[in-house]
Specification:
Layout lengths: L2 H9 L4 E5 H6 L3 E5 L5 H6 L4 E4 L8 E5 L8 E5 L6 E4 L5 E2 L3 E6 L7 H12 L12 H7 L1 E5 L4 H47 L8 E4 H4 E5 L14 E4 L11 E2 L1 H10 L8 E4 L7 E3 L6 E2 L4 E6 L6 H8 L17 H6 L1 E4 L2 H19 L4 H20 L10
Parallel strand pairs: 3-7, 12-16
Antiparallel strand pairs: 1-9, 2-8, 3-4, 5-6, 5-8, 10-18, 11-17, 12-13, 14-15, 14-17
């Protein structure tokens, strides 16, 4: 069934009027506001059972619990500090912080709060507002339009809204159930992966030769790059400890890159880069793309693959005791600590077998394009598809 034919059947010939949120507020349909300042100290000084919601996507936005509450009715909240995340708050005792905007439907006999929530989620999900404007209620009033089906017949309008809500809520519930099941399965697979990895990297006496990483190869790092040698844009990404394995926020010139690459240590394709600060032991396999790395914070072992495979090292690093020589928590992985780490080295054929098995588990549990993570993403896309289908009202007259 096509998009328009479905909507035509649902609307049954009625018109749809598009109104800006500001118009709806001025007409008394909705009211917009902003939350109050509630700090962690406030929660500590007045503990209670009433949830406080902020702009985080974690735990449904719950910031903590408080002894007071601001609202006891259903509302929609969103982040003031940036667009994209909307929450439906059912009728219960709760508060929202000052980084949240809130929206309350006043004429509930003409506008369904859940309908408005689905419209807002579809139109604004992921939108980033200009930093100077942010998503303040006064700005949101004029940013977007809301479709009101059959505005001349509130009873009919509510029936259409309720049917759309029923379908989308059903998909939301199904998506949540499927995602929960798949997430539980993914968690179980990760536990299974960890179990087999630990078993495969445990050896009986005589099955592997034990060496220190210092015996395996040389600890290397790139030449030091000074802050004045970097820029916010450029040709060659420069990865620091905070952006290691993520998106770069600093760059160096082609000239400096080629000069330093030719004169100083530089990783080979497949060698494993190690975080020596921050999240100690976080690893990335170097893919050969032109890039440069922060000295002393990002290091690697220059090993001989005729003795030990890079990918075998990569998996061993996942269980390595980075603090073995210190006996406690250290803030930095110094080269001496790294050199002293003991590693079992089985024959190359056994290393290759272990790597092949763990590669399959790794693809299943971690790749977004394979296995369960991809299924979770597809379920969310399925909901979004039907949301777009159900909210694609014909726009007869553009609001100016």
């Amino acid at each position: 069934m096509s998009n328009m034919s479905f909507m035509e059947k649902l609307l049954d010939g009625v018109e749809v009027e598009w109104k800006q949120l500001g118009e709806l507020e001025d007409a008394g349909f909705v009211k917009l506001g902003r939350g109050n300042v509630i700090s962690k100290n406030d929660l500590a000084n007045d503990p209670g059972n009433y949830p406080v919601y902020s702009s985080s996507a974690v735990r449904n936005g719950e910031f903590g619990r408080y002894g007071k509450y601001m609202f006891d009715d259903e509302r929609i909240t969103w982040s003031i500090d940036g667009g994209g995340r909307f929450f439906y708050r059912s009728a219960h005792n709760y508060s929202v912080t000052n980084v949240c905007g809130w929206m309350k439907v006043l004429k509930q006999d003409e506008l369904n709060t859940r309908f408005l929530y689905h419209v807002l989620s579809g139109a604004w999900e992921g939108k980033v507002f200009d930093y100077t404007k942010k998503a303040h209620p006064s700005v949101i009033r004029d940013e977007y339009e809301i479709p009101i089906p059959c505005p001349e017949n509130p009873k009919k309008s509510l029936e259409i809204q309720a049917e759309i809500v029923r379908i989308l809520d059903t998909f939301t519930e199904l998506t949540a159930e499927l995602t929960a099941e798949l997430t539980a399965e993914l968690t179980a697979r990760k536990k299974q992966y960890n179990y087999y990895r630990d078993q495969l990297l445990s050896f009986e006496e005589g099955q592997a030769e034990w060496k220190t990483l210092g015996e395996v190869g040389k600890v290397c790092m790139c030449k030091r790059i000074l802050k004045k040698q970097t820029s916010e844009t450029g040709d060659i990404p420069f990865y620091k400890i905070g952006t290691f394995g993520k998106e770069p926020n600093a760059y160096i010139t082609q000239e400096l890159f080629h000069e330093y690459k030719a004169r100083y240590s530089y990783p080979k394709i497949g060698e494993v880069l190690i975080s020596a600060s921050g999240t100690i032991g976080r690893t990335v396999m170097f893919d050969g793309q032109d890039a440069y790395f922060q000295d002393s914070n990002i290091v690697w072992i220059e090993n001989d693959e005729r003795q030990i495979l890079n990918k075998y090292l990569f998996y061993f690093y996942q269980i390595a005791n980075w603090n073995a020589s210190e006996g406690g928590t250290i803030k930095r992985l110094y080269n001496d600590n790294l050199r002293k780490i003991q590693i079992p080295i089985p024959p190359l054929a056994e290393q290759a077998r272990i790597v092949a098995i763990l590669d399959k588990f790794d693809a299943l549990t971690n790749s977004i394009s394979e296995g369960l993570p991809r299924e979770i993403k597809l379920r969310q896309q399925q909901y979004e598809y039907y949301r777009e289908l159900l909210l694609s009202f014909p726009k007869l007259v553009a609001v100016t």
